[in-house]
Amino acid sequence: MSQSKQKRLEQKRATILATAESVLIKYGKGATMGDIAKALDMDKSSLYYYYKGIPEILNAILDQEYYDFSVNINQIRKENKTHIDVLKEMVRVILEFYYDNLEILLIILTRIFPLFIDPETREESTAINNYMDSYREANALMLEEIELALDKREFTVRFSPQMILQILRGAVFGVCAVWRQSKPSRQEIPSIVDLVLSMYL
Known about the structure:
Blueprint: H1 3-27, H2 33-40, H3 44-50, H4 54-65, H5 69-77, H6 83-100, H7 102-111, H8 113-117, H9 126-151, H10 161-179, H11 189-198
């Protein structure tokens, strides 16, 4: 394939992905190739020339931004900090990822509610399965730190570890919901983390 033809192909695929993002956010799990083709004002059969289906489109979008939380989180846990400080760093890493990839989060959330309910459920998209595996691993690591913080009385509240974890996760998604309307500067994220964790101290 000539370089010019390859470049045109890449440009067309990028245009499709940009439009597909908005369609996937709008229609969620019900989004179809027909919806994407209609938004692009192109024939559905032509769209299949570029992508074989929704899972392939999801993989292409999410793989561009996919990030393994566990790499940073495991490093943070080795830094000899209090368990509260480790939790703050974990929440900061997660919030910074969502801050930089809010559209990615919205696409994921429109498709994966059943995956939160049943850990055995798998999606057709490999990238979404990778995200959920990473999400569950991050939860397990955070839960360990919460348990240790409770044992060492770094927390003043006596909620169960699971309740603390789910409240933290809920707070993270609540922050992201506000960011859909207006984002603060990225430098404010540590202050947001301090506020979220302050309810336990």
